[in-house]
């Protein structure tokens, strides 16, 4: 029998059978991990309220069986992101990020990469808990999430010839090739998205910015709309489908905020 | 192993029920085979009539055989208080407690963006409409105390805020018969926040 004790973030929780729950976890050692928590919905003592979306846990997972799913034996709550449960905007943004990770995070891989991925998601959830949910925060987190998942768009040099793409006020971006295209290569390509150079520079700044200084990101108005469209199309190209949580997020970010319950 | 299509068909049907595996389904099928004809007919009729006779209450969206349901027709109940729950089973649990004398509203789920469930997939608009047209003065949000249930309660509170009704959320804390040793720190914290003075 082989078991591990590890930190984990709950990406998704699906009821299974009468009393079990299937959990998609993100762990710092194994990446995305699917486990079954037997009796999770029936037993108050075994897991209590720990197996909830966004929760940061310390879990014991048993890989004992040769076939089938790993079994979640124990879970201890390290932290719960309370603001994500009581603010619909934060909830929507958190769900969107979890779904993106649930779709794109690898099952296993280089340990350092897995650790980086886990730390990113933990920091991102903390940022959502702290910062006001907005289109700016969404765009930035989406860009940073794609970067953490190994899908960083090329924002400075031409993806075709490697020359600097930023020689004019407007630059073309090719979603499938994953980056900016210079003026010389652009005429030979189709399906380009035209954006202002300032938008790409703001996104570059966003890639370097610490989560504690997200308010320093100088992007808004038309530039923010452009950035959002670019990142959204880039993400959809890699995921292959529209994320299910996207429609709710779009809707909620357009609504005015209300006082607390 | 020998098999017979009618028995296999019934075993396959039983296996679709929650908690019923191959062995239990086979045992049930043979039990049915041994039952008197009239009892089997009664069972078959009960199952077949269930889907035709059960409808959703036009007021609260609970499952009922006549609409409005018994609770919505009961004039002794306080029509000014509405308890909002996710599913009919939650309503039944609250009714079993015997501690609520108002009326209900069944949402039909909770917000779960990851599963594609947004406000249009549950009955948020119908709840708003009911609160706006009725003599409602309090809405108790009794969605499950998990991330989806909490988010749903707060989303609804945002929608109902302009209606100027009292909005409350069910209390959180330690379950009866629970053990501090096994409780997570968030639950313990909530139970202290929501403590009550002893009379």
Count up the helices of chain B: 8
The CATH superfamily of the largest domain in chain A turns out to be: Recombination protein O, C-terminal domain
Low-confidence stretches of chain B: none
Report the CATH architecture of the largest domain in chain B. 3-Layer(aba) Sandwich
Using the CA coordinates, give the radius of gyration of chain A: 20 Å
The count of DSSP E runs of length 2 or more, i.e. the number of strands of chain A, is 8
Relative helix content of chain A? 25-40%
CATH topology of the largest domain in chain A: de novo design (two linked rop proteins)
Largest interface: A-B, 38 and 34 residues
Q: Count of helices of chain A?
A: 7
Summing up helix and strand content along with how strands pair, one would put the structural category of chain A as: alpha+beta
What structural class do the secondary elements of chain B suggest? alpha/beta
CATH architecture of the largest domain in chain A: Up-down Bundle
Give a quick account of the main beta sheet of chain B: strands, pairing sense, barrel closure. 4 strands, parallel
Shape of chain B: globular
What's the CATH topology name of the largest domain in chain B? Dna Topoisomerase Vi A Subunit, Chain: A, domain 2
Strand content of chain B is 5-15%
Mean pLDDT of chain B: 92
């Amino acid at each position: 029998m082989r078991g591990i004790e590890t930190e984990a973030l709950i990406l998704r929780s699906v009821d299974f059978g009468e009393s079990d729950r299937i959990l998609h976890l993100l762990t710092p050692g194994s990446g995305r991990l699917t486990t079954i928590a037997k009796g999770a919905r029936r037993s108050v003592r075994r897991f209590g309220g720990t197996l909830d979306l966004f929760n940061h846990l310390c879990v014991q997972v048993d890989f004992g069986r040769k076939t089938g799913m790993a079994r979640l034996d124990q879970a201890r709550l390290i932290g719960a992101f309370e603001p994500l449960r009581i603010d619909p905007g934060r909830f929507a943004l958190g769900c969107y990020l979890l779904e993106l990770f649930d779709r794109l995070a690898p099952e296993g891989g280089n340990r350092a990469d897995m650790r980086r991925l886990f730390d990113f998601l933990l920091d991102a959830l903390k940022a959502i808990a702290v910062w006001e949910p907005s289109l700016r925060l969404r765009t930035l987190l989406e860009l940073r999430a794609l970067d953490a998942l190994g899908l960083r768009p090329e924002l400075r040099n031409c993806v075709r010839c490697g020359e600097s793409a930023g020689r004019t006020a407007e630059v073309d971006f090719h979603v499938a090739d994953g980056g900016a295209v210079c003026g010389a290569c652009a005429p030979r390509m189709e399906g380009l998205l035209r954006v202002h150079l300032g938008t790409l520079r703001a996104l570059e700044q966003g890639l370097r910015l610490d989560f504690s200084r997200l308010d320093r990101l100088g992007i808004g108005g038309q530039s923010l709309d452009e950035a959002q469209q670019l990142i959204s199309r880039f993400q959809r190209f890699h995921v292959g489908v529209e994320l299910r949580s996207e429609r709710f997020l779009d809707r909620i970010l357009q609504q005015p905020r209300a006082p607390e319950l | 192993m020998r098999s017979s299509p009618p028995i296999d068909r019934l075993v396959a049907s039983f296996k679709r029920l929650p908690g019923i595996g191959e062995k239990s389904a086979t045992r049930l099928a043979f039990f049915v085979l041994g039952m008197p004809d009239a009892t089997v007919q009664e069972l078959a009729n009960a199952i077949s009539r269930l889907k035709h006779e059960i409808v959703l209450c036009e007021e609260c969206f609970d499952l009922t055989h006549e609409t409005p349901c018994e609770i919505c027709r009961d004039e002794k109940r306080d029509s000014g208080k509405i308890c909002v729950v996710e599913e009919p089973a939650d309503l039944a649990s609250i009714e079993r407690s015997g501690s609520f004398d108002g009326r209900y509203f069944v949402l039909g789920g909770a917000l779960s963006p990851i599963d594609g469930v947004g406000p249009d997939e549950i009955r948020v608009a119908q709840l708003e409409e009911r609160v706006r047209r009725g003599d409602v003065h309090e809405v108790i949000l009794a969605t499950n105390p998990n991330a989806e249930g909490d988010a749903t309660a707060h989303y609804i509170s945002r929608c109902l805020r302009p209606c100027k009704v009292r909005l409350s959320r069910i209390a959180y804390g330690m379950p009866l018969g629970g053990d501090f040793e096994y409780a997570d720190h968030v639950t313990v914290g909530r139970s202290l926040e929501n403590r009550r003075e002893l009379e």
